[in-house]
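Re: that chain you flagged

S.,

Sorry for the slow reply, it's been a week of failed gels. I finally had a moment to sit down with the sequence you sent. For the record, here it is as I used it:
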Amino acid sequence: MLKYCSVMIMPAVFVLIISYGYANRVDVFNAFLDGAKSGLKTLFGILPALVGLMAAISMFRASGALQFLTGLLSPFTNHVGIPSEIMPLALLRPVSGSGSLALVNDLFKTAGPDSLAGRIASVIMGSTETTFYTLAVYYGSVNIRRTRHTLPAALLADLTGILAGTLICLLFYH
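Prediction finished late last night. Pasting the structure tokens below so you have them in one place:
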């Protein structure tokens, strides 16, 4: 029964939207075309920021800067009890969702998903955001150039998610 309902939801939503439009005498097709035009304008508006962000992420990983920062921070993280395998994820997560997902996948292959590092990585992925990507998309779509307090607040929220998630996993699983 649940499988049948899940298959029928999208067609039902389409029929509901079209029926509502016709009941309120809205030209549904022209409204759809106007929305598609607006979406394409938004896409072309944020595309340069996304391309620049993707290029920067690729250069950051390929240059060895991620490994350098991880090595630089490892004495501190080892002293506090944070597994060193987590640091690349903690550094890359605010920048790239797909890059951090690849790191988590590699971590799962080497340490295992039920290891302490695997559990911490899972919590970090669930409690943090790809801050720079999100700001580029949302602020780029409405042409906001000055982020003011948004970036520091979002990075502080990411840091809080990383530290709190690590602490909770250390308390419960170590």
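What I noticed first: The radius of gyration is 22 Å.

Talk soon,
D.
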